[in-house]
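Q: Second attempt. The first request was missing the SMILES, so the protein and nicotinamide-adenine-dinucleotide are both included now.
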Amino acid sequence: MKIGIIGMGHVGSTLAYTLCLQGLAAELVLIDTNAAKVQAEYLELSDTLQNLNQDVALVKNDYAALADAALVVFCAGDITVLATATDRLAELRVTSKMVEAVAPKLKASGFSGIVISVTNPCDVIALHLANLTGFDKRKVIGSGTLIDTNRLKNRAEREDVLVIGEHGESQVALNVSPEIEKLATGTGWEIYAAKHHTAFGIASSVARIIRVLKTDTGELLPVSTYDEAEGCYYATLTELTLENGVVRRVLPLLNKLEADRLQQSIQTIKRNGQAF
Ligand SMILES: NC(=O)c1ccc[n+]([C@@H]2O[C@H](COP(=O)([O-])OP(=O)(O)OC[C@H]3O[C@@H](n4cnc5c(N)ncnc54)[C@H](O)[C@@H]3O)[C@@H](O)[C@H]2O)c1
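A: Got both inputs this time. The predicted holo structure:
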């Protein structure tokens, strides 16, 4: 499978490495405005591939090469913006401009596959990217709350938990106490405080989404998808296929409090989306 990665920072480079290790890509198109960074990652990945049993063709900074790609992951950004912020929305001013720079090139490349948008604020950026490319919104998804659900599983030490809504402060954790929910929501910030970025959790989450798309297992994942009625993206359980993107969105049964909180989360995403 040919996969493009736009933004070869912490997230993009860790994703490329993960895809090589897991044998999920036959070809990787690596794109970044920082040509030296792309070259460095190209060299590191080439060194990695010497240790692996599979060949992965690596292409650098070539939008035209995306024409026949099955997937593009959008993870451009500037993580240093978060150094003085307490909310992923602080990135919006910067990352919305990056979408505006990338979308016309992605569209002009002739790409017609699935887009997985990771850049924060994840749900708002997914909609911006879908609108500016004009791609079918079923084929543009956000990485959503798979990562938050994984964090919640670790904090709750249980598997039967789920996070829906915004990948952000208004997210809604199901089946846990408020204390555990708070711990889980703080995980990203705890990692960021020491590492000044997060990468393994999100890269492996995106790799898992790609594996589900590739193998067509029908597994439901909490990713961010477009709700026609609300006119915005937010995370709920979703069935995906490589051919059609979103084929089914499943909202779990919610009690009144959870339903109210989900509605507040949706309103938060919509409010932030009004910035452009
Ligand atoms: N959704 C999630 O769960 C999740 C998790 C972690 C990080 N993120 C987000 O992912 C984004 C990237 O994080 P990071 O740590 O890799 O950031 P980073 O600053 O390390 O890297 C971003 C890269 O994007 C590149 N870039 C900037 N503008 C570009 C453009 N127009 N075209 C192509 N490349 C461009 C930069 O040169 C840089 O190499 C951020 O928005 C971050 O908040 C999301």
